[in-house]
Amino acid sequence: MSSKSAFVLGASGMVGRQIAEVLMKNPAFSRIVLLGRRRVEIPDAPPHLEQQEIDFDNLDPQHFQGFDVGFCSLGVTTKAGKEKMQQVDHDYVVATAKLARENGATAFCLVTAAGSDPNATFWPFKIKGAAERDVAELGFEKFIVARPFLIEGPREEVSFGYRCSKLLLKPTSLFTTALLIDAQEIAKALISCTLDDARQGVQILSAAEMGKIAKQYKVEK
């Protein structure tokens, strides 16, 4: 297997951070670049991990040159408002994916949410669904979409809705398996899919599917 280069957008967030950490430990990737507004503290970062600060409102195409795959977990909560979510979850996502594709990336992974649909009536799902649609139209050889429902992992901010959902899911292990997923499992599932030659075109992954893929995740020495 030839070594790959990857960039990560959203490494300051829970899922993006896990993507970066799992990539760091996978020898299939010889170059990893974290792209963001600010640098992220990564203890014991390996030499092949780089960080570059970018301005999402004035993107430089040079930041997206020389990559095989891009990972994107950009997003804001609904509390930020419709306009801000449109800017981050759609506009920034599509703009960065477009530059990646124009500069030779063949694969792109995007973290959205269960229920994402460009025709949804609930605007957060509509925005995320539109982002999926518009990135799919860019023509990546491989476009992997992660649609988690509830994500487990360290959070800077825990919403009331998240706490309530956890309480409701706790007694029912069947539903918990189908709806709740750890951020590291999302990372492992996405990375596995980028390395799986059998996966081509647009792939939509539910929490249950990501959990199964993550369990089979192996690092080839």
UniProtKB/TrEMBL annotation:
Name recorded for this polypeptide: Semialdehyde dehydrogenase NAD-binding domain-containing protein
Species in which this protein is naturally found: Mesorhabditis belari
Q: Name one GO cellular component term.
A: cytoplasm
Q: Which domain of life, per UniProt?
A: Eukaryota
User: Per the UniProt entry, what are the Gene Ontology biological process annotations, in alphabetical order?
Assistant: alpha-amino acid biosynthetic process; import into nucleus
The record, for Pfam families, names:
Semialdhyde_dh (PF01118)
Entry's transmembrane regions: none
Instruction: Give all residue intervals belonging to the Semialdehyde dehydrogenase NAD-binding domain.
Output: 8-78
Task: Please name the PANTHER family in this protein's record.
Answer: OXIDOREDUCTASE HTATIP2 (PTHR14097:SF7)
Q: Name one GO molecular function term.
A: oxidoreductase activity, acting on the aldehyde or oxo group of donors, NAD or NADP as acceptor
